[in-house]
Amino acid sequence: MSGTKPRLRVAMVGYGFMGAAHSQGWRVAPRFFELDAEPELTVIVGRDAARVEAAREKFGWMRAETDWRRVVEDSAIDVVDICSPGDSHAEIAIAALDAGKHVLCEKPLANTVEEAERMVAAAERAAARGIRSMVGFSYRRVPAIGFARALIADGRLGDIRQTRAEYLQDWLVDENGPMTWRLDKSQAGSGSLGDIGAHAIDMIQYLTGTTVEAVSGTLATFVTERPLLGESRGLSGTASAERGRVTVDDAAWFTGRLAGGAIGSFEATRYATGRKNAFRIEISGNRGAIAFDLESMNELQFYDATAPAGERGFTRILVTEPEHPYMANWWPTGHLIGYEHAFAHEVRDFVDDITAGRDPVPSFADGLQVQRVLEAVELSAANGSAWTETGGAR
Ligand code: SOE
């Protein structure tokens, strides 16, 4: 670290699970990657003064603040990182961009297409003044995913015909598990669909370099009432005596037609008993295939259909070589990385783009495209799984 580098003074809104992950990213990235600006964990923001102060101390931020508006108006802040629930994204992001702050916003970009469109307009206005924005689809920054993307871009899979993406969690299997903001449509926008289905959509669009143009989908809510939340802990927490209504989907399935002719299947659920955070991707082309599972995130399976017939088979590649994306800056070959590293990579890329004057990806426009697919799935499900257009490409 050099004292001569410009500082990038960061304000982070939110201090839950994602706030913890982003704090780790901001802290670790400059220690393992050479950045042209030095991030400073300047202020952490949350509505509850006592809790945000406890988070400040735990995650190592300099100050705590209870009103995001003060932070957005503060000329001593360069970056606003939004880790709060989806219903606050549009208002904070637009205000921050209009005030000249670079913005990193957690996924999904917004709760509705209309909000996402306003965010894209603000991002475009800001970009004209050199202000950058990015949506936090962090799994793009898993080295095995970056490597898969490079294989696909090099044509190693040939023409892609089918994609499969399933994001399986089980933290709602217990019907007495409490309500959290993720189960409240007014805060989260949707359930499994927007929370983890959004990752699946972004990932398939990113890996294939294409977009989902039409969908046919189904949504299900298995448990419609739950105890209200007592003390929050991770994704869940303790249950109180009162009960509340679940207003989002518990599980989502859909098939999609991709620009370019491929078809894709998508599943997102919090009821896949025994599956904790199994984000599985498979992409099949006429020259090869890849398979990935986040529960074994340091590995990529690659099938080379051009190899001699007797030698073909899925090869397990341990993605820990210095040649692999991001890995040269971590540990010696074979020494694994984990969930939080993707957030450090996200910060590295965002800071690099800010200092190089480039527009980061995934952009707010990419986030809007995902939002259009989410909305089309909801429309389709409401119309008996009717095929529904997603309303245009990026
Ligand atoms: C909860 O389902 C969640 O934390 C998502 O919100 C994250 O985006 C994902 O990384 C892990 O699961």
UniProtKB/TrEMBL annotation:
The keyword Phosphoprotein does not apply. InterPro entries: Gfo/Idh/MocA-like_OxRdtase_N (IPR000683), Gfo/Idh/MocA_oxidrdct_glycsds (IPR050463), GFO_IDH_MocA-like_dom (IPR055170), NAD(P)-bd_dom_sf (IPR036291). The keyword NAD applies. GO terms for molecular function: nucleotide binding; oxidoreductase activity. It comes from the Bacteria. This is Gfo/Idh/MocA family oxidoreductase. Pfam families: GFO_IDH_MocA, GFO_IDH_MocA_C3. Keywords: NAD, Oxidoreductase. Residues 148-290 form the GFO/IDH/MocA-like oxidoreductase domain. Residues 8-127 form the Gfo/Idh/MocA-like oxidoreductase N-terminal domain.
